[in-house]
Amino acid sequence: MIKVARIKRNLRNFAFPRLSGTEFELKAFNRAKQEVENLNLEYEVENFTFSSFYSRLYPKIAFLSVSLILLIQFFTISLTIYLILVFLLLGIVITSFILTRKPEKIRFLPKFNSQNLLVKIKSLSNEMKNNDRIVLFISHLDSKGQRFKIQTRIRVIKLWVYTSIILVVIIILKNLIYLGFKLIISIIGLLPLILNMFASILILLNTTNNSSDGAIDNASGIVCNLEMLNHYNVPENRLTNYHMWFLFTGAEECGTMGIRHFYHNLKNFDSNKSIIFNFESVVSYIVLFPGGEGDHIKDINNLLLNNNRRLTIRNHAKKRIFGTHSDGGFLGDRGLQGFGIGGAGAHGYMHTSNDTIDKVNTTILKRLCLVLTDALKEHDSAFFK
Asked: I need a labelling partner for 32 at 20 to 30 A (CA). Which of 56, 114, 118, 247 fits?
């Protein structure tokens, strides 16, 4: 049975600062593990090491280097100095880009330890193969605070992108048009140049800290995952045609490191038959981010949107909001099918000290869990007739 009292208790237990790679994230992991042990369930622990370069340093290097290249291109300077600076900056950008193609393999600069927790519950059917159908629920354990709010960071990145495009056009025009118009073009280009450098400076000034309780992001997801685990731990609630997996990832807020390590070690998982639900910042009303063209995904999507629990779910076709990353988004980019489940209207609180439990509607969390159990039960009984 889905219980709002347990949801509230777990929300209080996990709403504390727990920056990835720190003793506080480990504390959250141990609390999740204790909840699993209390249910007398077996579990798997995946320990891994990661670097903060990809998430915290690489964006600063990339954005600033490109801005400096545009600045150098904009002003006329000595050809020798120009070539040296441009090749140096391009070398930094290209090297950083190559290194971050597989950020989970980076092993320099500050390195941290983290871990994933995985629980597996078998289906009622004894005829299923290990690599057949699986429902995978995901939530990340860590939280983070940052100097600037998410909305501010998204606006700054957009400002940087738009002004960079304008500057590229202006620089091309300066080199193509008649000499007499270059001064006018240069004057026009000063504003986007200043704004571009301003955006780069703000990106540099944004820092990560351990100041956020992370109640929305993502204690709300953790408690939903635990509630689903409690529900399917009861034998009569289990599905006939799907095994149930429950994954709690570490270091999601530092470049989705936990899910990357999980994915590279993933076995016995048929992505064409399985379903993923990623709980990510669930608040006042639910937003569904479906991903996948399988008939089973379409069936679940329809059942969720037309639920009988009076839960309004908004169906968004986009995978995720510009400039954001998630465990579900990472798996979706690699062809795995499922749903990102989150909320809207919380960006003003997330990654700040105001991300506290009073911002989370536990009644909505309960109703969401009920809708999911209803949909999966109906899908399991009707889809496979």
From this structure: 56
Domain identity same for 199 and 337: no
296: containing domain: 4-51+110-138+215-382
Measured in degrees and rounded to the nearest 5, phi and psi for residue 215 equal: -70, -45
- pLDDT tens for 86-102 read 788 888 878 877 777 77
Mean of all residue pLDDT scores within the chain: 88
Q: Tokens at residue 69, please?
A: 């290249």
DSSP 53: I
282 torsion bin: left (phi>0), alpha (psi -120 to 50), beta (else): beta
The amino acid at residue 260 is R
- For residue 371 the two structure tokens come to 């809708």
Euclidean distance between CA atoms 106 and 11, whole angstroms: 34
Domain match, 98 and 182 both: yes
Q: By the 8 A CB rule, do 316 and 329 touch? A: no
CA angle at 200 for the pair 195 and 202, rounded to the nearest 5°: 95
Same-domain check for residues 170 and 201: yes
Q: How far is CA 35 from CA 42, 47, 95, 368, 384, in A?
A: 11, 19, 43, 21, 33
